[in-house]
Amino acid sequence: MNCNYSFASDNTASVHPLIMKAIEEVNRGQYVSYGDDPFTEQAINKFKEVFGEDAEVFFTLTGTASNVLSIRAFTQPFNSVLCTDVSHINIDECGAPENIAGIKLVQIKSADGKLNPKMIAPHLGVIGNEHHSQPRLISITQTTEVGTVYTYNELKELTEFAHNNGLYVHMDGARLANAASYLNLSLKKLTYDAGIDVLSFGGTKNGMMIGEAVIIFNRESNRNFIDSFKYIRKQSMQLLSKMRYISSQFIAYFENDLWLKNAEHANRMAQYLSNKLLEFYPDIEIMYKIEGNAVFVKIPERILDELKKDFYFYIWDNNGPVIRLMSSFETNRSDIDNLVSRLKQLL
Ligand SMILES: Cc1ncc(COP(=O)(O)O)c(C=O)c1O
Questions:
Q1: I need a surface site. Which of 54, 63, 144, 187 has the fewest CB within 10 A?
Q2: Hey, what CATH topology would domain 5-12+258-346 get?
């Protein structure tokens, strides 16, 4: 695609130079495969430092794989997984959770991309009724698909409600770094301390080349899931033989808080963009709170085709239309200024 700059996603960005350097450094000599190498050990120790000793870590190749394998580990095919209507697992994974985990996804309409106990409760009346899929897991996304953020208290309330009702909580943390930056809270606080059972932790959208992780938190009730996860991962073709190429990236990702610096920058750019867009109101309307690195805006239909010629972005909703503009660690002010001046011309 030929365009000035892409605002389509944070994964159109390049690989952060420090990540590239880490890959290059590990690309010397031979090491034991399938994760029995010193870099993987070092990376896992780093995860335990960051997420706590109870974090059991398994690397995967994609965010979709992390989500689907998390679901598969915590469910049986007669279970249902409760999620929002806009969740990635619901609309952007080509039915993989249903196909590979065999579960039913129950989508709950959400105005801000979040779930809360009040929204979940009406779906629990079927528990014990053999005619219905049995709710087992709540899957939430942090930051959400519309760029909003669950606070620590919202997470705690949700996980307590889930656990009191015999359910587990999965967090799709493809952009957890952006949420941690926004809230100024640690990754551990927003996951383990908040009662999350299983986390898909993303790296690719925040400067890594390839690499995601599933973290199952070692609570009494999760032991069996931890024990079986390595088999599920292998059977699902996500055990990478040259694991050190992911491990080395994660080591660099945590070194000097690169993950946080990248997320802080992306968030700052989203704020910068949204502040600039305010001047176009009411022609341009910001749809959701800017809490991460996504800016959703309603634009006049008449400018859409022209704008698309110069910039790459996703149309989130044809009604409006609403477009999604995302920033990343490498977005800079001049990219945004270019977009803003083009908008000015078109409007
Ligand atoms: C919220 C969320 N979860 C998961 C993913 C999955 O990532 P992948 O494309 O690596 O499968 C994405 C990717 O866009 C995402 O936005």
A1: 54
A2: Aspartate Aminotransferase, domain 1 (3.90.1150)
